[in-house]
TrEMBL record:
Residues 19-189 form the Transglycosylase SLT domain. It comes from Marinobacter aromaticivorans. This is Lysozyme-like domain containing protein. Pfam families: SLT_4.
Amino acid sequence: MLGLVIGTWATLRFSLLAPDPPVNPDDLCDIFREHTVWYDYAKDSQERWGTPIATQMAFVYYESSFRSHARPPRTRLWGFIPWTRPTTAYGYAQALDPAWGEYLAANGDGLFTVRTDMEYALDFVGWYNHLTHRQLGIPFHNPRQLYLAYHEGRGGYARRTFERKPAVTALASRVQTRAFRYDNQLKACEQEFQCWRWYQFWPFCG
C-alpha cells in the first residue's frame, strides 16, 4: 500500500511539474530560451556520454515532440474500441520498458528517475548512443545511423532491419537534417546558456 501511495504521489508530482512543449520547436535557441535548464541537461549528457546536444534534441523532437508523457496511440479493436498500445515507449525519449530497465540498472534505480523528466530522458539518449557507439562503431557525428540503431535497437541495426522499412530510413534522414540545423542554430546562441546563472561571468563559464 505504501509503495502504491508513493508511486501515485510521484506520478502526480511529475505530471504537475512537466513543462509545456516549446512554442517554437524548430529553433533550438528558442527552445533553450524557453526551457533554459534543458540546455544544462543536454550539456551534462553530452559531457558524460558523447552525443552532441543538437542530436539529443533532434531525437526528442521526433520521438515525442517534446511532450513529457507521450505514448504511442492505442490500437483499435474492431476498428473503434480503444485497445492496447503497440509498444511500451513512454516519455520524452520514448524509451521502451526493457531499455529503460537496463538504463536504471546501469545508472542507479531511483524513485525520481523517470522518463517524463527531461534530465533523465536526455541522459538515456546519451547512454543508449554511447553503447551504440561502443558496440557498433557508429560515430557520434552521424545522427542518421545513431537514430536507426535507436529506433530498431542495436540488434535490429546489426541485422539491417531498417533496409526493409523505407519510412524508418526516411525518418532517420529527417532526424539528421534537424540535428545539423539545430547544431548550426546552437553555435549562434550557446554562449547565452553557458552564462545564464547569476554567479557566472564570461569568460569563466562554458
